Amino acid sequence: MKTFLTSRPFLNWIIVIVASLALEVPLISADAQAAGRGKPPPSTDPPPTTPPARFWHAFTGNGSNNVGASRLFLIGGNGDDTADYEMYADFWYYAVDSHQWVLAPTGRSKPSGRNHAGLSCGAGECVTSNGVRGSPLKETWVYSERAGAWSQINCRKQLCPSARQNVAMAYDQDRFYHLLFGGQGGTNGPENMSDTWSFAGGTWTREQPVSSPPPRWWAAMTYVGPPVGGIVLFGGLQGYVDLLDDMWVWDGIDWQPVVFSGDLSPPSLYGHSVAWDGDRLLVTGGYVDPTNCDTPNKTVWSFTFDGARSGKWSKEPDTTGCYASVKPGAVMAYDRSQKLKVFFGGGENGPNGVIVYDETVICE
Fold first, then answer.
1. Distance of CA 218 to the CA centre of its chain
2. Which of 245, 247, 304 is nearest to 278 (CA)?
3. How far apart are CA 283 and CA 220, in angstroms?
4. Which residues contact 343 (CB under 8 A, 6 or more apart)?
5. Would residue 47 count as lying in a domain?
6. Number of folded domains in the chain?
7. Structural domain harbouring 274
8. Is the preceding omega at residue 257 within 30 degrees of 0, hence cis?
9. Does any domain span residue 13?
10. What's the rounded Cα separation, in Å, for the pair 274 and 286?
11. How many Å is the maximal CA-CA distance in the chain?
12. In a domain, 197, yes or no
C-alpha cells in the first residue's frame, strides 16, 4: 500500500479591507504612479503542488500502458460548503511514474468551474461534457495532451448532448471514440435520461440503439477488453430513491444486458467509480443510500466475465487496509501501466458543515 497524504486546513480565508476616504489615502503608491504602472506587484505565493480539497469532481486515466505516458486527469469539483459552493476550474494530472501531481497547462481558454461533469480520456485527448454550475450545462470541451490546451465545441452551431449533469463517460479504445450515456437534465424539471452519444473528430453523434439501459444518472462506465470488447455501464440512480444494480455492454451498435451468476448479489450504487484491470471489472466508492450521501460504500467489488455478456461478482479483500483509508466521496482513477488504483479527495457531513479532503491514496 502506498498512501500519499497532505495536510491543509479546511478553510483558509484571507480578507483584505481597503478604505479610502475623500481620496486622502491613495489606492496606488506614489512610486507606482510615477512609474506609470498603476498595478499591484505580482503575487509571490508559490503555486500549489497538489489539487486543493474537493468533492464531486471528475477523475480518470488516459488509458496508457506506458508508465512514462500514463496520466490520471482531474477536473472540477466543490471546495467547500459555503453559500456559493466554490467550484474549481483547475485541471490537474497525476503522473504515476513520479508519483506527483502536476497543474496541467490549459491554453488560452478552459472550462469554467463546475461539478458533476463527465470526463473521458484516451488516444491523447480528454473530453469533458456537461456538469452543473448553478444549473446544468450544455458544454463540450476537448483537451489535447500534446498541445496542452483546451478547445471548446460550439454547441450553438453543432449537435451536442443537451444540458445535464452526472453523465457516464468512457473512451472506447476499439472504436476510437468517447461514449456518453444518460445523466440528469430536462427543461421542465429534473429528468433522468437514457440517450447514447459518441464523440470523435470534434463531432457528437447521437446513437440509435434498438435496446437501451433504463434512464439513470450518476452511473459509471469504462472500456472492458476481451471477452467483452466494449463499454460497460453499471449502476446509477433512477429518480431520487431508486438505486440500480444492472450492467450493460455497448457493442458499437446496441446495448446488451449482462447476466449475473453465482451466489453473491451485485451492489446497488451511485456515484461510484469503475475500471478494467485486464482481468476483472473493479467497482469502488459511491454511495448505498439514495436519500443522502452519509452512507458511503466501503467495499471494493470485482466482476469476472465468463463470457461476453455474463459473469460473477466477488468482493476484493482489503488485506493491507488501503481501501479502509479512502475517504468518503473519493473518486478513483485507474493506472493501467502499473495496475494502481488511485483515489483522490472526497467529502462528508461533519458537525460544523461539510468536511472536504485532499488526500491521494494509492492501492495496489
1. 11
2. 304
3. 9
4. 284, 285, 326, 327, 330, 331, 332, 359, 360, 361, 362, 363
5. no
6. 1
7. 2-40+52-363
8. no
9. yes
10. 10
11. 81
12. yes
Q: How many CB atoms lie within 10 A of CB 156?
A: 7
Mean pLDDT value of segment 345-350:
93
Q: Which of 119, 122, 102, 101 is nearest to 111 (CA)?
A: 119
DSSP 33: H
DSSP code string of 120-152? EEETTEEEEE--EESEEB--EEEEETTTTEEEE
All cell numbers assigned to 234: 453499471
Which residues is 105 bridged to in the sheet?
Answer: none
Pull the grid cell for residue 187: 427543461
CA–CA distance, 44 with 182 (Å, rounded to integer)? 45
- Whether the CB-CB separation of 168 and 219 falls below 8 Å is answered with yes
Burial bucket for residue 308 (CB in 10 Å: 0-12, 13-18, 19+)? middle
Tell me the C-alpha distance between 323 and 282, whole Å: 13
Residue 5 has pLDDT above 70, yes or no: no
Q: In what order do the strands lie in the sheet with 220-224?
A: 220-224, 230-238, 242-250, 255-257
Cell numbers describing residue 16: 483584505
Residue appearing with cell numbers 463499454: 231
24 pLDDT tier (thresholds 50, 70, 90): very low
Rounded to an integer, what is the distance from CA 332 to the centroid of its chain? 9
Cα of 192 vs its chain's centroid, Å: 19
**Residue 197 to residue 185: CA distance in whole angstroms:** 15
Question: Beta 140-144 vs 149-152: how paired, if at all?
Answer: antiparallel
Query: What is the chain's percent helix, strand, coil content, to nearest 5?
Result: 0, 45, 55
| Three-state DSSP state, 245 | strand
Asked if residue 305 lies in contact with residue 251, where contact means CB atoms within 8 angstroms, the answer is: no
Single pTM value for the model: 0.86
- pLDDT band of 13, cuts 50, 70, 90: very low
The CATH number of the domain holding residue 244 is 2.120.10.80
Name the band, by pLDDT with cuts 50, 70 and 90, for residue 294: confident
Length of the chain in terms of residues written = 364
- Tens digit of pLDDT for each residue in 67-84? 999 999 999 999 876 545
Task: Write out the H or E segment, with its range, that includes residue 306.
Answer: strand 301-307
Is residue 45 one of the residues assigned to a domain? Answer: no
Residue 326 Cα to chain centre, angstroms: 16
